[in-house]
Amino acid sequence: MKRRQFFAFIGIAVASSLLAVGLQLFDSSIVTAQPNTTNLLVSAAASLKDGLEEIKTVYQQSKPNVNLSYNFGASGALQQQIEQGAPADIFISAGKKQMDALEQKGLLVSGTRTNLANNSLVLVVPSNSTGVTSFNTLADAKVKKIAIGEPRSVPAGQYGEQVLQKLNLLQTVKPKLVYANNVRQVLASVESGNADAGLVYATDAKISDKVKVVVVADDKSHSPIVYPMAVLKSSKNVDAAKEFVQFLSSEPAKTVLKKYGFIVQVSKAPAPSR
Length: 274
Known about the structure:
alpha/beta
């Protein structure tokens, strides 16, 4: 009898322990359960890197469940990736040409295309350089290498060639041109001294203390430097992508872009009522 009571006691104890463990696991699953995370991949022009990284921090303060990732590169290369089926939710180009190409192929979500910002093109030299004082001095024999984006894929390179053509310098300096895969590579070449001068955006020059601006190109000497953005039809999270594009047009995002030197239309505060 005592033996039966002993085994009964053991059985009850084991059952109670299992029940307790089960309840703990159940409670733990409730506590640790998190809302679903939405992943967004933004393919964007390399010149936007610093501004968009800061905007990401600002955005995720109010949207912690949105995981933003960036794919930075030359606009033309990104365009080709998208055309070939590379995953992306949003495209932000440094030129109208690349976005036009995607729109013509029906790869954009209708009604989502808008312009993010504008920029300026500048001629930069290493900060300790004294030889280059204008675009015309690029023709001097002492200037050996001029860094520029590859015009076929880098909008900054296209704008740069337009400026040199407008100033009747392109054929003269063409043997000196060193082509880069994106505008940040142009900047790096000038920073390191591997190039005597380079053509980059004003925003690129602004983030570097290793280069100085010699001259700002006349806006009339090149096509307007505009950054169009749009949601891609290939996106698996179109609604979330639309929300982020909308945020990029908001005042908080514009304030960040302006900080990095982009030209944006920031709304003025309304005049106080009297």
